[in-house]
């Protein structure tokens, strides 16, 4: 459906340009330059979506670069589905059947739903549509993957998907993320993969920020105290949504590497302050200061993340 409306609006944009020979945006408006940029990015993303198979094969690098700059809001639903290849999954047809079944995790899911995006209009009212569809997707997943069932934290990811797309599509994307993006391993009951991520991240700190590493050790300030939620919710419980969603765009395109990059960039930017603080002070800093450092926009953080030296071979080792 989205693909159709996107291509229709793209045709109408292109059509009106051809017919009138001028831009759709009135050039007298003060923000006409910005509108031109928005319009151009609309047309560009419209083309990418319509010619996805070709573009992905031939222009993978350019698509990555564009995603790093942020996917326009209107295109997120379809582009996320395309990035993780979730647009034609057979499991989608089982969704309505799954909802008729009973899951052993229902009580747990119900309990947590009210705590997921409690400030967000779509989710904050008890028994609202948002809470209902969030419950549906979480329940359906817990029935498909009995080993993981329901894991706290995953509702933030599903909630973000539901802000962009209908529940069946959100369910398919979530299944893909769990299978192909290491998330299922992170959410398994043993959480061994989370331990591995913490270890890898700690090694990065030791290598790139040795002074901070020693300070953390001397204060018994363990990586898991501040970084577990970064990995489990891809920063959705750390930053305001506009910033977390931009990081999530890149996660959809490049996987968990972005969490390591952003995490290390945050520590680099805050190293001077953290070195002055004890354990309690550091916890406060992570909870109160860091979340609002990029309220003016995430570009600075994303640029810093790509200055971080990330060695995939070393991480694997």
TrEMBL record:
Signal peptide: none annotated. PROSITE patterns: TBC_RABGAP (PS50086). It comes from the Eukaryota. Residues 1-29 are annotated as: Disordered. Residues 70-255 form the Rab-GAP TBC domain. Gene3D superfamilies: putative rabgap domain of human tbc1 domain family member 14 like domains, Ypt/Rab-GAP domain of gyp1p, domain 1, Ypt/Rab-GAP domain of gyp1p, domain 3. GO terms for molecular function: GTPase activator activity; small GTPase binding. This is EVI5 protein. The lineage of its organism: Eukaryota, Metazoa, Chordata, Craniata, Vertebrata. The gene is Evi5.
